[in-house]
Write a structure and sequence with these properties.
This protein has 277 residues and is an alpha/beta fold. The strands form two sheets. It has a seven-stranded mixed sheet with strand order 5-4-3-6-7-9-8, sandwiched between helices. A two-stranded parallel ribbon has the order 1-2. Strand 3, helix 3 and strand 4 form a beta-alpha-beta unit.
């Protein structure tokens, strides 16, 4: 796989290309042959990460209230709605862990799947967990979800690094829009901690913004990779190489059926068959 890489693109923390050839050549946006490498380093600590997360405050709960969304947001919300729709179609098994759950919207959507019996959502922000619990109450009040769904969900304030072993192993572990917020050197240790919570025959689901989506997304103002809190960048091949070290079976899902997965605005992977215990 690695021998097929045509370009290695060096990026700074804002995703700008640092290569000398970047000024002279047109860089292919085909993420099946480009490996982005972020060369800047960041010392991680929980306080700074939490402060940054507070400024970012993902508002995924808007997918439950599309009629109340501002006109200038609807342009981008369509991709969130499609991503949630795709996420809902996956087979998670009974017990699910979602890391970086933010306001709990995705955990709630997963809990609505009949075969799922328990969803644990964790986030570094205490305020996110409070938002999630308020959201559940509001959705119950409006009749959007029932008490059976609400009882499946447990939202907790933990980081990936300090999530305790007492929760046991899960049929599926999900990291939706999480790893782009981590410094590159923190990705491996964070992932290794998540890996031990996946059952031997369990699954791992991940989505991150595509650093090299189809150019139409940039033109339409819908690209996601350059948001200020993003510290890491991925192409289809870079994420595939990383995940292939840990799983035997890796499937890439296109966000929209009519496009190639390498061109999607999001890179969405479903991983099966753990190589290690």
């Amino acid at each position: 796989m690695i021998k097929n890489i045509k370009k290695i693109v060096l990026l700074d923390k804002e995703g700008k290309m640092l290569n000398s050839f970047a000024k002279k050549e047109t860089i292919s946006t085909d993420s099946s042959c480009v490996l982005p490498v972020v060369i800047e380093s960041y010392l991680w600590n929980e306080k700074d990460q939490n402060n940054s997360a507070e400024k970012y405050k993902d508002q995924i709960k808007r997918v439950f209230y599309p009629d109340k969304v501002e006109k200038n947001v609807k342009n981008m919300l369509q991709d969130d709605l499609r991503r949630i729709e795709l996420i809902e179609s996956f087979n998670y098994g009974k017990k699910v862990l979602e890391v970086g759950c933010s306001d709990g919207s995705v955990s709630i959507k997963i809990a609505q799947i009949p075969n799922v019996s328990k969803v644990v959502g964790i986030d570094i922000r205490k305020s996110a967990i409070k938002d999630g619990k308020r959201l559940i109450k509001d959705l119950l009040k409006q009749g959007i979800i029932n008490y059976g769904v609400a009882k499946k969900i447990k939202l907790e304030n933990f980081t990936i690094e300090n999530f305790p072993l007492r929760f046991g192993k899960f049929d599926s572990v999900c990291a939706y829009e999480v790893f782009e917020h981590m410094a590159p050197q923190d990705m491996l240790p964070a992932f290794q901690n998540l890996y031990k919570f996946i059952k031997k025959d369990g699954k791992f689901f991940i989505s991150v913004p595509n650093r090299f989506p189809n150019k139409k997304y940039e033109k339409m103002g819908r690209a996601r990779w350059h948001w200020f809190d993003h510290r890491n960048y991925f192409s289809k091949i870079s994420l595939e190489i990383f995940l292939s070290n840990f799983f035997n079976d890796i499937k890439v899902h296109s966000l929209y059926e009519e496009e190639d997965s390498k061109d999607s605005i999001y890179l969405i992977f479903e991983c099966n068959g753990k190589k290690y215990e």
